[in-house]
Specification:
Rossmann fold, two-stranded antiparallel sheet, globular
């Protein structure tokens, strides 16, 4: 991460959580994304912002707290800055795996988790079946906020 980032304090029912994010999301480079054999597209860095849907999911999880999350395995798809994963870990979920197709986003989540003393594993993974990071185990809870940007994404998520 060349951008040292800024800390954004996110108010949640169980208490605030300091999230590390890029200082200027508009200045973050587009991500190269493989879309076929030898074909790449540049995708906007949607991960660099804390979207209302991610905040709402994190708030709902925080409201549920340990009663829902303690001791459960949690996978977050398209984690972006990973607020829902961080909240799940804070409530006692384990293991927690935050994934994003961006090669950069998981590093930001890992940095926030380290600073907060939370156990959140991260991985670069798309949910379109092109990688194996999401296969081979079951999860008690799978989270995703604002990840369906078209029919292809809905089909991939359904297949997963």
């Amino acid at each position: 991460m060349s951008d040292p980032g800024v800390h954004e304090r996110v108010g949640l029912p169980g208490g605030p959580l300091d999230l590390l994010r890029p200082a200027d999301p508009e200045a973050v480079a587009f991500d190269p994304v493989a879309v076929g054999e030898g074909v790449e597209e540049l995708h906007p860095p949607h991960w660099a912002r804390l979207w209302p849907s991610g905040r709402a999911l994190a708030t709902a999880l925080d409201d549920a707290g340990p009663d829902l999350l303690a001791g459960r395995s949690v996978l977050e798809l398209g984690c972006g800055l990973g607020l829902p994963s961080l909240v799940a870990a804070r409530a006692g979920a384990h293991p927690v795996l935050a994934t994003d197709r961006s090669p950069v986003a998981p590093g930001w989540v890992a940095a926030t988790a380290r600073r907060a003393g939370l156990r959140v594993a991260t991985a670069v993974a798309a949910f379109d079946g092109t990688g194996d990071a999401l296969t081979g185990r079951g999860w008690d809870l799978v989270l995703a906020a604002d990840v369906l940007y078209g029919a292809a994404a809905a089909d991939a998520l359904t297949a997963l």
